[in-house]
Amino acid sequence: MQNSKIISSVLILLALAVANIGAQAQRRSSRAADRQVGVILQQLDRSSGRFRNSLTTAAAQQRIDQTRSGNNINTFQSDFQRATTQLNTQFNKRQAGAADVENLLQSASVINGFMARNRLNRRVQSDWAQVRNDLNSLSAAYGLTWQWHQQTFPGVSSIPSGRLSDDQLGQLIRRIDTGGEAFRTSLTDAFGESRYDQSRSEGTMNDRVRVFKNATDQLRNQFDSKQPVAAYVERLFASAAPIDTYMRNNQLTDRVQSDWSTLRGDLNSLGHAYSIATNWQISNEPPVMYNSDSR
């Protein structure tokens, strides 16, 4: 009997030792993966910087008409930079996930389409090829595969569906909720800085934003209660579409434009996670020119 107790104790100790070794190995693997991603992000920062400089020079020399559809490279570059900053911020918080990488790849695909449609010099083509290589390495680090030959345009995401876990979807929905709050605040401040009376426009936008807020709350509550959410995602996009139209057709502050661009990127990721098309429609309503000078 005594021998049985000794044997049982030894087996328990061995099991605990094996579990501890496994946990240590897992932590080492996680740290190694973090270091790998950190190195890739540093390489991407350098390569995208070189591309940005060579592209600026090439665009000026070749006088690219940025008024043509799909040719607004300044906007594409700004979206790419914001997506890069967002990924770096999430990575530094140890919260980066596939959705952040896919958002970056989406913005990069728009630039890739621009590069395919415009014959630029060898230097800028080479610099872009290096950016793509770094993005491919980043994709592989997160277990993603990206098809560069699929052309995408602003507002149209090519994110593969079905790649996000429940935890990642939950993080994405919470980020949309937080991003919506940031956008509402910056939009209110933008209207407050206006030097002319646009009460009708402001009132309409406030109504649209309230509808979007309600749709976000309903989606979050439905997801948290583990109920089907596809219909709620569709409602969220229906409420976001008129806001996007307004933001495209009106020149507001850089802050509110940046907040909406970030929020729209997260919405694209959510839509494709549920296989819902996110082709933002551009209306023909006349723009309202915004005066950014304060009173």
Mean pLDDT: 76
> Spans with pLDDT under 50 lasting ≥5 residues?
25-29, 150-162, 282-295
> Which secondary-structure class do the elements indicate?
mainly alpha
Distance linking N and C termini: 89 Å
Q: If you compute it from the alpha carbons, what radius of gyration comes out, rounded to the nearest whole angstrom?
A: 23 Å
**Major beta sheet, specifics?**
none
Number of helices: 8
Order of helices and strands: HHHHHHHH
Number of DSSP E strands: 0
Q: Give the strand content.
A: under 5%
Q: Residue share in helices?
A: over 70%
Taken together, the total number of domains comes to 2
Shape category: flat
Comma- or semicolon-separated keywords:
295 residues; mainly alpha; 2 domains; flat; disordered C terminus
